[in-house]
Write a structure and sequence with these properties.
The structure holds two protein chains of two kinds. By secondary structure, chain A is an alpha/beta fold. Helix content of chain A is about 35%, strand content about 20%. In chain B, the strands form two sheets. In chain B, strands 4-3-2-1-5-8-9 form a seven-stranded antiparallel beta sheet, with helices on both faces. Chain B has a two-stranded antiparallel ribbon with strand order 6-7. In chain B, a hairpin with a 4-residue loop joins strand 2 and strand 3. The chains are: A alpha/beta, B alpha+beta.
Chain lengths: ~110, ~270
C-alpha cells in the first residue's frame, strides 16, 4: 500500500497540468490591460491609432457566385472582384473588454 | 514493483512534454507590444493584398519544439473581411477573427468569440502566422455561414484538444473551422451529415503520443479526452485542413507568414 501511495504521490507531483495545452494558467492578460499596453505603445497619438470594436459585419461579395439570401444575421453587400487588394484601416483594432474585465482592471489599479 | 515504479516516474516526468493545440483567449504577451502590433497588422495587410475576404488563420501559442509531430499551429480560426464599427461610431474595414476559444476557468468548455489580429496574436510564442486562403467561391460560402449565424448551430461547447473530427462528442477550434467549411460546401448544418462527409473525404492528423501519456491526460487534464476515439487518436489540424482544400481544388493559397514579412509555402 505504501508503494502504491508513493506511486500516486510521484504521479501527482511530477505531472505538470497547465503545460498540457495552450490554456489554463496563462490567462492573465485581460482585454482591459491589453488596451492600456497598446495605448502606451502608441504614445500621444494613441486615440488616433487605436480602435475598440463594438461590432463587425462581414462584407459579402455581390455577383461573384450568384446571390446569397441571408434569412438571419447581417451582412453588408459590396461589389468586388476576387483578387482586388482590399482596403484595411491603419488603426489597431481590439475587441472591447467586457464589463467584468474593465471592473477587474480598475480594481487592480486601485490596489 | 521497482520496475513499474521507474516506468511510471519516467512516463510522468516526460508528461509535461506532451503538448497539443489549445485555444486560450487571454494569454500573456511574450514579445514587445510594438512587435505584436506590427506583426498583426502586417498579416492583415498581406491577406488584404491577396484579396482574401475570408481565410483560415493559425498561430503558434507554444514553443514549436514541444509540439507533437504533424502539429505546426496551436490555434486555428477564420478571419473575415468586415466593416468594423468602433466605440467612437466610426466604421473601418479590416479582418474580424471568428474563434472557438476555451472558456476561462472551464477548459473543457468553449465559446465562440470574435476578436481582431492584435488580440489573436497577443500571446503567441512565435511571430508566425498560418494563412490558408480558400477559392473565392468557398470564401463566399464561409462568409454566408458566419454572417447568417449558422456557425453557432454547428458549435459544440464540449471541448477536447484532441477532438475526433468524425463525431460530435467533443469539438476543438480546428474541428469547428472544418465544420464551418463543410457547412458552406455542403450547404447544411446537419451535424450527422457533416460528420459523415468528413469521414469520407477529410484526412485528419494522427497523434503520435505515448498511450500512457494520453491515459494520464484523460485522467488529469480537463481539456484532454480520448473518450471520442476508438484506438488510435486522430484530430483536425491547420495543415490537414489546408491539404483537404488542396485535394478538393478549393485552395487558392496556403502559406506561413513570418515575422520578417516573408512567406513560405505551407503545403
Amino acid at each position: 500500500m505504501k508503494t502504491l501511495n508513493k506511486v500516486l504521490l510521484i504521479l501527482l507531483t511530477t505531472t505538470s497540468l497547465p503545460s498540457f495545452a495552450d490554456s489554463g494558467a496563462s490567462k492573465n492578460a485581460s482585454a482591459a490591460s491589453k488596451h492600456s499596453a497598446l495605448a502606451a505603445s502608441h504614445g500621444t497619438v494613441a486615440s488616433a491609432k487605436l480602435g475598440s470594436a463594438i461590432v463587425a459585419t462581414p462584407l459579402i461579395i455581390v455577383g461573384a457566385i450568384g446571390s446569397i439570401s441571408l434569412k438571419t444575421g447581417k451582412a453588408l453587400m459590396e461589389n468586388a472582384l476576387s483578387t482586388t487588394p482590399l482596403k484595411i484601416t491603419e488603426k489597431t483594432i481590439t475587441a472591447a473588454p467586457s464589463p467584468a474585465q474593465m471592473m477587474k482592471a480598475n480594481q487592480q489599479e486601485e490596489l | 514493483m521497482k520496475k513499474i515504479l521507474s516506468a511510471i516516474i519516467i512516463a510522468t516526468l516526460s508528461f509535461s512534454s506532451l503538448t497539443f493545440a489549445g485555444s486560450a483567449q487571454n494569454t500573456a504577451i511574450q514579445f514587445s507590444v510594438e512587435d505584436v502590433d506590427t506583426f498583426a497588422k502586417s498579416v492583415e495587410l498581406y491577406a488584404a493584398q491577396e484579396g482574401a475576404r475570408a481565410f483560415i488563420i493559425g498561430r503558434v501559442g507554444r514553443p514549436e519544439k514541444d509540439l507533437p509531430e504533424g502539429i505546426n499551429f496551436t490555434h486555428t480560426a477564420i478571419a473575415v473581411y468586415s466593416s468594423i464599427t468602433l466605440d467612437t461610431g466610426e466604421a473601418v474595414k479590416g479582418y474580424a477573427i471568428h474563434n472557438l476559444y476555451q472558456k476561462e476557468g472551464e477548459a473543457d468548455k468553449s465559446e465562440l468569440v470574435i476578436d481582431y489580429p492584435v488580440d489573436f496574436f497577443w500571446g503567441v510564442n512565435t511571430l508566425k502566422a498560418g494563412i490558408i486562403i480558400p477559392t473565392l467561391d468557398l470564401q463566399q460560402r464561409i462568409i454566408e455561414v458566419i454572417a447568417s449565424g449558422k456557425d453557432k448551430q454547428i458549435h459544440n461547447e464540449n471541448y477536447s484538444v484532441i477532438a475526433n473530427p468524425f463525431n460530435n462528442t467533443f469539438q476543438n477550434c480546428t474541428e469547428h473551422t472544418l465544420n464551418i467549411l463543410n457547412a458552406g460546401v455542403y450547404q447544411t448544418t446537419d451535424m450527422t451529415q457533416l460528420k459523415s462527409n468528413a469521414k469520407q473525404h477529410f484526412k485528419p492528423q494522427k497523434i503520435k503520443a505515448n498511450p500512457f501519456k494520453l491515459l494520464l491526460g484523460n485522467w488529469f487534464i480537463d481539456d484532454v479526452s480520448t473518450k471520442d476515439h476508438s484506438g488510435k487518436v486522430y484530430t483536425t489540424t491547420f495543415t490537414t485542413i489546408g491539404k483537404y482544400l488542396q485535394k478538393n481544388n478549393l485552395l487558392s493559397k496556403a502559406v506561413v507568414f513570418n515575422k520578417e514579412g516573408s512567406t513560405e509555402k505551407l503545403l
